[in-house]
């Protein structure tokens, strides 16, 4: 089964017998990481990398304190 990358419209073939919910798949074209939200029916959601684009909104000190 194939889904279309929301970032670059590249078809990504996902073997639903090979993946499980919670796993991540990568787009070969743009490297977008997507989490398998559901296998049946197949549903993927882009994984947002927190703080990657919004470093100003997330003080680094706060993240370090959580560990
Ligand atoms: Zn892509």
Taken in chain order, the helices and strands follow as: EEEEEH
Strand order of the largest sheet: 3-4-5
Bound molecules: zinc ion
Look at the structure and give the mean pLDDT: 83
Helix content: under 10%
Number of helices: 1
Class, according to the CATH hierarchy?
Answer: Mainly Beta
Determine the N-to-C terminus distance: 39 Å
Instruction: Predict the CATH topology.
Output: Rubrerythrin, domain 2
CATH architecture: Single Sheet
From the structure above, extract its key features.
single chain; 67 residues; mainly beta; Rubrerythrin, domain 2; three-stranded antiparallel beta sheet; two-stranded antiparallel ribbon; elongated; binds zinc ion
Chart the SSEs and their pairings.
Blueprint lengths: L1 E3 L6 E3 L10 E3 L6 E6 L4 E4 L13 H6 L2
Antiparallel strand pairs: 1-2, 3-4, 4-5
Bound molecules: zinc ion (ZN).
């Amino acid at each position: 089964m194939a889904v279309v990358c929301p970032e670059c419209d590249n078809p990504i073939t996902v073997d639903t017998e090979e993946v499980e919910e919670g796993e991540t798949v990568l787009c070969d074209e743009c490297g977008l990481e997507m989490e398998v939200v559901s296998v049946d029916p197949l549903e993927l959601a882009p994984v947002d990398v927190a703080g990657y684009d919004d470093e100003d909104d997330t003080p680094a000190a706060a993240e370090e304190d959580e560990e």
